[in-house]
Amino acid sequence: LIHGIWHIWIGIDHILFLVALVLPSVLVRNADGWQPVSDIRSTIWQVVKIVTLFTIAHTITLTLATLSIIEMPSRLVESVIAASVAFAALNNVYPILRKGMGYVVFAFGLFHGFGFASVLQDLIISPKSLVVDLLAFNLGVEIGQIAIVAVVVPILFAIRNQRIYIPWVLKSGSALIAVLAIVWLAERSLDMQLLA
């Protein structure tokens, strides 16, 4: 359980994926561009929907990989995770995808699950504890994820009407996340070290 919580908290790529997904949750996109939402209910619904899809997806592949039913090359998994962060962030800067983001979150969530599984497989001491370890680790990941969202979303909602939100928090913040993710993608896919 603790390892699951800790992994999500130190997994900067997973955190930035979540942040990139929730940054626009306090806004609505219309023909005139981004506009702040009027109440928190629509934000909560948007966040619950996205986080639930992400959770279902990564739980599926975490389970399948931990039980050795499906295996994926680590380099591919880590590269796709970096690409997921870049895509989510770039979609905030320039709308690549206006509808169907839930499908994209689910698809990328499957790869995040493989990433979680690689960590869990190193922690399993005995095959007898496999199911308990799997359930506890996954619950820990969910607790860590909910804690991040519970801190970030109220802050975003509180500042959504500020003039700095769209140009600086949403767009510039997302652009910075995208640049970092693209560097990760290059490092992971080409097996090279760009950041110290």
Protein architecture, described:
This protein has 196 residues and is mainly alpha-helical. The chain has seven helices and two strands. It is 74% helix and 4% strand. A hairpin with a 2-residue loop joins strand 1 and strand 2 (33-36). The two termini are 30 Å apart. It is globular. A two-stranded antiparallel sheet has the order 1-2. Helix 1 (2-10) crosses helix 6, helix 2 (12-22) packs across helix 6 (130-159) and helix 4 runs antiparallel to helix 5 (101-123). The model has no long low-confidence stretch (mean pLDDT 93). It has helices spanning 2-10, 12-22, 40-66, 74-93, 101-123, 130-159, 165-190; strands at 27-30, 33-36.
Return the string of H and E elements.
Answer: HHEEHHHHH
Termini gap: 30 Å
What is the overall number of helices? 7
Secondary-structure-based class equals mainly alpha
Mind sketching the topology for me?
Elements: H1 2-10, H2 12-22, E1 27-30, E2 33-36, H3 40-66, H4 74-93, H5 101-123, H6 130-159, H7 165-190
Antiparallel strand pairs: 1-2
Helix pairs in contact: 1-6, 2-4, 2-6, 3-5, 3-6, 4-5, 4-7
Quick structural gist:
The chain is mainly alpha-helical and 196 residues long.
Characteristics of this structure?
196 residues, mainly alpha, two-stranded antiparallel ribbon, 7 helices, 74% helix, 4% strand, globular
